[in-house]
Each structure stands twice: as C-alpha cells, then as structure tokens.
C-alpha cells in the first residue's frame, strides 16, 4: 500500500474511532450518572416512588423520569448500541493497520517470534480475555464487588506482564486497551442488549419480567464505566513513550494507569 494512502487511511479511521468513542463513552456515563441520581432520590423518599431528575442544558430545562413499565409500543423505544460496535470495529481496523499489517507488533529485542504468531496471540488475548471475564462475572466471584475488583486487577497485571514479554511495549499497551474495549463491546451486545430485549418483550405483553435481567444489564454497564477511563489512558499512551511504554517501569506504570482510571471513574460515577 502506498505510504500516503496508508497515512490518510490511518488518519481517517482514527478520527472515526475517536468520534464514535466520544459518543459511546458520553452516553454510557450519562446514563450511569442518571441512574445514580434516581437511586439517591429513591433513598430519600418513603413512598418507594421514583423522582424525576431535572437538568438545564443548551437554553432549556429537561426532566427525565425512570419508568418501571413500558408506556409506549416497543418500536418507539430508543436504543443505544451502534456507538459501541462502531467504536470497536474502527479500533480493530486501527489495530490491524498499525500493528498486524505493519512492523509495530514485534520487537526482536523482546521476543523472536514471527508476525503470524504475534497476531494469533493478540487475537487470543482479546477472545480469551472476554471469556475469562464473562465467566468470572457470572460466577460467585461476580457477586462481590471487592473480590471481583481484586481478581480483575490481578488478571490485568498477569496479561499485561505476558504481553510486555512478547510484543513491543507500545503494542502491549494497546492490546491491554483493546482487551478492555472488546470486553466493553461484548458486554453491550452479548449481555446488556439481550437482557433489554427480554425486558421490553415482557413489558410489551404486560408480563412480569425477571428483575435479574435489569440487575445484569446494570452491572455490566457499571463495569464498562470503570474500563472506559483506563482505555483512554492506554490508547493515548503511544504519544508519551518516555512516560509510559518506553519507561523502564512500563509494567508498573500500565497498572498505575488502570488504577488511576478506576479511581477517576469512581469519582465521576458519584458526582
């Protein structure tokens, strides 16, 4: 491929990736914040009813009220799903352009492995990482927030340590970010959306739906808000090689970025 074409393709995909990422993370945090406001309001009421949330923006006042039943036909319900898929697909395209279809994946000073094996390892990390995460959430471990947080951190530490001993440091950082992004996307498409479809179908028939579906979707959405900030940190790390992946303590710095991201998400969620 011509270098100029590759450059424009890289730039175009990167712009698209950033744009869709802004849409996805923005609506994720908005709804998470909104849900938190409803929870606070419900705790302050004694009648068990939901209070509306009032907001002001762009020269107008807005009120949003949480409903426990479906008051419109299912086709009038707005979904938020394509932001996640388009962000992930454009991210995969960038991963291919920058690493799988170039020399940025393997560092001979780190490991002497062929490009094809490196690509296989990268894909295996994305697929296997999701599988481990999903099984952990559905196990008894997922019922304890503290225990799951410790497990998630230890798994992140182990995977990042392994990648830093196989890939170039820059590629290792990006693959940890890509793993988080993959988990977030599959949370939306494989766990949150199916639960929401069942909820809407039951509500449309005026049947009682399993409250566990709501809890499952809410938990996965919560996890996504905690992964979003570390993903952003890791994705922009390639612009700061001395401070991040090029540092002698690149592994420790990567883990610190994850912890700082989690702390930042905690602050945003409780604002």
UniProtKB/TrEMBL annotation:
<keyword id="KW-0472">Membrane</keyword>
<feature type="transmembrane region" description="Helical">
    <location>
        <begin position="118"/>
        <end position="136"/>
    </location>
</feature>
<feature type="transmembrane region" description="Helical">
    <location>
        <begin position="86"/>
        <end position="106"/>
    </location>
</feature>
<keyword id="KW-0812">Transmembrane</keyword>
<dbReference type="InterPro" id="IPR010389">
    <property type="entry name" value="Urate_ox_N"/>
</dbReference>
<feature type="domain" description="Urate oxidase N-terminal">
    <location>
        <begin position="5"/>
        <end position="263"/>
    </location>
</feature>
<protein>
    <submittedName>
        <fullName>Urate hydroxylase PuuD</fullName>
    </submittedName>
</protein>
<feature type="transmembrane region" description="Helical">
    <location>
        <begin position="148"/>
        <end position="166"/>
    </location>
</feature>
<feature type="transmembrane region" description="Helical">
    <location>
        <begin position="225"/>
        <end position="242"/>
    </location>
</feature>
<feature type="transmembrane region" description="Helical">
    <location>
        <begin position="248"/>
        <end position="268"/>
    </location>
</feature>
<keyword id="KW-1133">Transmembrane helix</keyword>
<feature type="transmembrane region" description="Helical">
    <location>
        <begin position="15"/>
        <end position="34"/>
    </location>
</feature>
<dbReference type="Pfam" id="PF06181">
    <property type="entry name" value="Urate_ox_N"/>
</dbReference>
């Amino acid at each position: 491929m011509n270098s100029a074409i590759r450059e424009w393709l890289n730039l175009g995909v990167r712009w698209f990736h950033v744009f869709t990422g802004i849409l996805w993370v923005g609506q994720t945090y908005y709804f998470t914040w909104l849900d938190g406001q409803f929870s606070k309001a419900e705790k302050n009421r004694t009648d068990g009813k939901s209070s509306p949330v009032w907001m002001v923006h762009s020269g107008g006042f807005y009120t949003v009220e949480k409903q426990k039943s479906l008051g419109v036909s299912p086709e009038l319900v707005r979904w938020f799903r394509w932001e996640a898929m388009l962000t992930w697909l454009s991210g995969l395209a960038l991963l291919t352009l920058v690493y799988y279809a170039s020399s940025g994946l393997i560092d001979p000073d780190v490991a002497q492995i062929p490009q094809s094996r490196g690509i296989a390892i990268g894909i295996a990390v994305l697929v296997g990482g999701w599988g481990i995460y999903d099984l952990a959430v559905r196990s008894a471990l997922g019922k304890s927030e503290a225990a799951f947080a410790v497990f998630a951190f230890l798994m992140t530490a182990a995977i990042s340590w392994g990648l830093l001993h196989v890939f170039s440091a820059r590629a290792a950082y990006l693959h940890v970010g890509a793993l988080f992004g993959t988990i977030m996307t599959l949370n939306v498409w494989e766990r949150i959306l199916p639960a929401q479809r069942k909820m809407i179908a039951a509500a449309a028939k005026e049947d009682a739906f399993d409250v566990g579906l709501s809890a499952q979707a809410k938990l996965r959405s919560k996890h996504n808000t905690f992964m979003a900030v570390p993903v952003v940190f890791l994705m922009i790390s390639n612009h700061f090689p001395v401070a991040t992946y090029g540092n002698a303590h690149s592994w420790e710095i990567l883990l610190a970025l994850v912890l700082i991201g989690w702390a930042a998400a905690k602050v945003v969620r409780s604002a």
